[in-house]
Amino acid sequence: MKYHINIYSFKPGIVSPTGASVRSFTMESSGGSMAGSSRRVGPLTPRFIISGGGTGGHIFPAIAIANAIKKEYPAAEILFVGAKGRMEMEKVPAAGFKIEGLWISGMQRGAFTKNILLPIKVISSVIQANRIIARFKPDVVIGVGGYASGPLLYAATIRGIPTLIQEQNCYAGATNRILGKRVQKICVAFDGMEKFFPSNKIIRTGNPVRQDIINIKQKREEGLNYFGLKGDRKVVLITGGSLGAGTINRAIRDGFSKILNEPVDVIWQTGKLYYQELKKLAEDNGVDHIKVFEFIQRMDLAYSVADITVARAGAISVSELSVAGKASILVPLPSAAENHQYINAMELVKKEAAILVNDSEASEKLVDTALSLIHDESRIKSLEENISGIALHNAAQNIANEILSLIKIKKD
Q1: What is the per-residue pLDDT across 198-225, written as a single tens digit (0 to 9) for each?
Q2: Per-residue pLDDT tens for 310-366?
Q3: How many Cβ atoms from other residues are within 10 Å of residue 44's Cβ?
Q4: Are residues 183 and 326 in the same domain?
Q5: Pair (161, 302) in one structural domain
Q6: Separation between Cα atoms, residue 26 and residue 29, nearest integer Å
Q7: How far apart are CA 248 and CA 98, in angstroms?
Q8: CB-based contact 131:150 (threshold 8 Å)
Q9: Coil, strand, or helix at residue 208?
Q10: What are phi and psi of 4, to 5 degrees?
Q11: How far is CA 251 from CA 140, 255, 264, 290, 370, in A?
């Protein structure tokens, strides 16, 4: 079966392909579906630019989307564009994709001297973005948030190239709010995003998460062996993300004596900065039921054995906890842009799908709240059911489908 693909070049603000310039090529499939079995047989290959980064919360969803596109079109050419000096410049090549960097940074609150060059950086990045687009000739440009996303999406919309935003948080950033008026589609993870974007452009797809956290209940025995647990006690998983969270670590450290006397196991990811101090704390107390890690490589196995989780409230963390169905205590990072972590957490709290402990109250309340919850079976079950009910699965593939829908597909 063959598919004829027309690639339309849109004018800004025009969603209909009528009158747009067209590039064509043919895809051939061995069956009725294009998924997983299609191959390019025409002269052209679809090209995509994915722009953004800065944090793992932007980078890893972007890579997941790229892999989903590749699953549909193995011959697709994908170029990432990030910010020079940011973590995407390392993580993206490690995932097997090409990346180019823009000279761009964000507004530094309360740092006037660091912001002096910002207008020049923005202008320079838009010019560079135009050059990248002219050279690479993408068929669709995708923005996932982060410093580089704005210049690329803006340049693409000026040129009339189809564009899509993937907004991870329930509170959209200023750049995405502005660009939302110009792009064709906006993929979101939370309800109520109409207050930021035109409702006719919004598609609720969810956030891409690691595929290995799906069906984690089947991994419980493997998880117990991995962490050296017997499985006869409740398990508290504590994580502040890959870099650790100072407030959470200090709160657990200060309440360590309370945890020592409880019949629970603890898996504690501290991050590099706090690891040596907190590992020594556990060793000095001669405990083996509190497992301290700098970084947990197999987070899927950590989720599989955890009865409750203590975590920050970044969009991807919240999405992972939802897909994993974990009863959670969320401690939002107060310095997150536009306080989006607090807003993310409150979306779950309003649906009785998580418990909130404010960062400023963590030293007093976090340990007591965790120990109270771990012994409350009915509350754990209720939180698990409620957070599982809001989970959106297959987000990466759903987003990829929306991206590909910007390329008009017709059967021969």
Answers
A1: 999 999 999 998 888 888 989 999 999 9
A2: 999 999 899 999 999 999 999 999 988 789 899 999 999 999 999 999 999 999 999
A3: 15
A4: no
A5: no
A6: 10
A7: 36
A8: no
A9: coil
A10: -100, 130
A11: 46, 6, 17, 15, 11
Tell me the residue ranges of DSSP E strands in 192-346. Answer: 202-204, 234-239, 264-269, 290-293, 308-311, 327-330
Query: Which amino acid does the sequence have at 336?
Result: A
Domain region containing 46 = 2-207+394-411
Phi-psi region of 325 (alpha: psi -120 to 50; beta: other; left: phi over 0): left
One domain, residues 226 and 184: no
| Rg of the chain, C-alpha, whole Å | 23
pLDDT band at 8 (very low <50, low <70, confident <90, very high): very low
**Spatial distance between the Cα atoms of 352 and 37, rounded to a whole number of angstroms:** 42
Q: Are residues 338 and 382 in the same domain?
A: yes
* Residue that the structure tokens 């047989």 belong to: 41
Order of strands, sheet of 140-143, starting from the edge strand that comes earlier in the sequence: 98-102, 77-83, 47-51, 140-143, 163-167, 185-188, 202-204
* Rounded CA separation 384/403 (Å): 32
How many domains does the chain contain in total? 2
* Local structure of residue 11 (DSSP, 8 states): P
Q: Are 332 and 341 in contact (CB under 8 A)?
A: yes
Find all residues with CB under 8 Å of 31, minimum gap 6, and list them.
1, 37
251 plus 337 within the same structural domain? yes
* Among 328, 319, 337, CA closest to 391: 319
Concatenating the DSSP letter of every residue in 141-186 gives: EEE-SSTTHHHHHHHHHHTT--EEEEE-SSS--HHHHHHTTTSSEE
Same domain, yes or no: 244 and 375? yes
Q: What amino acid occupies position 323? A: V
Q: What six digits make up the tokens of 238?
A: 């504590």
Q: How far apart are CA 312 and CA 88, in angstroms?
A: 21
Output the six-digit token pair for 125: 């990045």
> Where residue 38 falls among pLDDT bands split at 50, 70, 90?
very low
Phi/psi for 358 (5° steps) reads: -65, 150
The pTM score is 0.79
Token pair 């972007």 is at which residue? 62
Q: How far apart are CA 150 and CA 122, in angstroms?
A: 9
Per the CB < 8 A criterion, the answer to whether 210 and 300 are in contact is yes
Q: Are residues 168 and 270 in the same domain?
A: no
**Encoded tokens for 323:** 């897909």
Residue type, 235: V
Provide the phi-psi class of 305: left if phi over 0, else alpha when psi is between -120 and 50, else beta: alpha
